[in-house]
UniProtKB/TrEMBL annotation:
UniProt KW Metal-binding keyword: no
Keywords (A to Z) from UniProt: ATP synthesis, Cell membrane, CF(0), Hydrogen ion transport, Ion transport, Lipid-binding, Membrane, Transmembrane, Transmembrane helix, Transport
Presence of keyword NADP: no
UniProt domain V-ATPase proteolipid subunit C-like: residue ranges: 9-72
SUPFAM superfamilies: F1F0 ATP synthase subunit C
Subcellular location: Cell membrane
Annotated transmembrane regions: 6-30, 51-75
Site residues by UniProt (Reversibly protonated during proton transport): D59
Name by which UniProt lists this protein: ATP synthase subunit c
Gene name of this polypeptide: atpE
Cited function: F(1)F(0) ATP synthase produces ATP from ADP in the presence of a proton or sodium gradient. F-type ATPases consist of two structural domains, F(1) containing the extramembraneous catalytic core and F(0) containing the membrane proton channel, linked together by a central stalk and a peripheral stalk. During catalysis, ATP synthesis in the catalytic domain of F(1) is coupled via a rotary mechanism of the central stalk subunits to proton translocation. Key component of the F(0) channel; it plays a direct role in translocation across the membrane. A homomeric c-ring of between 10-14 subunits forms the central stalk rotor element with the F(1) delta and epsilon subunits.
Gene Ontology molecular function: any one: lipid binding
UniProt main location, coarse: membrane
Amino acid sequence: MTDTSFVALACGLIIGLGAIGACIGIAIMGGKYLEASARQPELMNTLQTKMFLLAGLIDAAFLIGVGIAMLFAFASPFKAMVVGA
């Protein structure tokens, strides 16, 4: 395997595992929101605001991982180290 194939494999793992983690996190959070709003319907608006805030933070963590993977895929910051060695 070449260095390029390792970079492609790493990018795939970063994006894939990040997507799985974000999906699981949002699914658990959505389930807990439905549970909490069923128990106390008067707090539904407050809980919904907090749920959307957390959903944005979970997606932001995933998108940061995608950005790092794209940096490795297209900018190749380690290529200079490999070529210089």
